[in-house]
Amino acid sequence: MFELSTEIILLLLAAGFIAGFIDSIAGGGGLITVPALLLAGVPPITALATNKVQGLFGAGMAAITYSRAGHVDLRKQAKPALVSFAAAVAGALCVNALPTETIRWILPALLVAIALFFALKPGLDDTDRHARLTPGLFAVSAVPLIGFYDGLLGPGAGAFFMLAFVTLAGQGILKATAHTKLLNFASNVGGLTGFILVTSPLWALGLAMGGAQMAGAYVGSKLASRIGARLIKPLLVIASTAMALKLLSDLI
Q1: Shortest CA distance to 19 belongs to which of 219, 222, 245?
Q2: Would the CA dihedral through 111, 18, 34, 205 be positive or negative?
Q3: In which band, very low, low, confident or very high, does the pLDDT at 100 lie, cut at 50, 70 and 90?
Q4: Are 204 and 101 in contact, with CB atoms under 8 Å apart?
Q5: I need a labelling partner for 179 at 20 to 30 A (CA). Which of 5, 47, 57, 224 fits?
């Protein structure tokens, strides 16, 4: 039986709140919660599974908050969410069959590219633009690809969804953020489903951190709904860069 002190649990709850706040706006909450779980002494695979438990609550709360603010119609996103879920399950089940180490070396460059895109691309705001893909084509191409990746590895999945919604679906920054959360929620559930087949999360801890994530996600998504691209863009650049640096430090 894995046991944690009250002080460590409180610190993990604080990490969950902060991660929920950041993740609801720009993604990258796992940068906070996974290292926190590992520092608390949770074994790596169990930490990843527990992170999926708490992460889905934050993404779910963010999706609901953005929906209530009128930035996304969750019913219209139901089918893409199912695609994201199924793809994430497949990704989690393929974790031992694909060259994940090679992918880990490529990821930092992709995340830096995303950071540069949102930092330097002129005219990116909350205004919708011409969509390069129809909703149906987007749901059968970009969604399963990113959902599969989230189940396989995970870091940066929210940023990848954001980039896809902006560049392929033609959405403004705030609308893209809102649409990202439901798909990210679905891929978290799918990834967790795959993890459960190989390990058991710390359910009580994951659920407690999930409550903290929900509180942070509520505050973050409410703030993002009011401020929009002026808040989301810089946080997305910071989060993507931080994820790239963290991945590089793990590899070196």
Answers
A1: 219
A2: negative
A3: low
A4: no
A5: 47
